[in-house]
Amino acid sequence: LRKYTNVDFILGDIREMGIPANSFDRITISWVIHHLPKEELLDILQSIVNTLKPDGKVYVIEFLAPPHGIPEAELFKLFNGTGLSESEVFKKKKTGIFEFKKK
């Protein structure tokens, strides 16, 4: 990523970082959601969506199968509850790659 001057890699709790709304065109979340506490998940995802520009996209790479995965239907329900709509899905074995678009 060093050669790309328009890409930022950020690590931390999105709720505590003070990132302004409508900051990002694209956000990638890789193999993280299944680690987040269920009781905080919707709040975390809503914070992510708030930093996304209108018509921005969130790309999610996630395990879908037990014991560590999150069921696909649950993933869709979570993201649809934050104001995103599913636009692309690719699944292979126990992993899914999802594209959600801000409405």
From TrEMBL:
Gene3D superfamilies noted in UniProt: Vaccinia Virus protein VP39
InterPro entries registered for this protein in UniProt: COMT-like, Methyltransf_11, SAM-dependent_MTases_sf
PROSITE patterns: SAM_OMT_II (PS51683)
GO molecular function, one term: S-adenosylmethionine-dependent methyltransferase activity
Listed Pfam families: Methyltransf_11
Residue ranges annotated for the Methyltransferase type domain, each copy included: 7-60
Name assigned to this protein: Methyltransferase type 11 domain-containing protein
Organism of origin: marine sediment metagenome
